[in-house]
Amino acid sequence: IPIIPPVLIRKEMMKDMGYIDTKEDLTERYFLEKENMFLVGTAEQSVGPMLQGEILEEKELPKRYVAFSTSFREEAGSHGKDTKGILRVHQFDKVELFSFCHPAKSREEHKFLVSFEEKLWQALDIPYQVVQLAAGDMSRPAVSTIDIEAWLPGQNKYREVSSASNTTDFQARRLNTRFKTKEGKTEFVHMLNATGFPIGRTLIAIMENFQQKDGSIEIPKALQKYIGKKKIEGRVG
Question: What residue stretches are annotated with the Aminoacyl-transfer RNA synthetases class-II family profile domain (predicted)?
Answer without folding.
Answer: 1-220
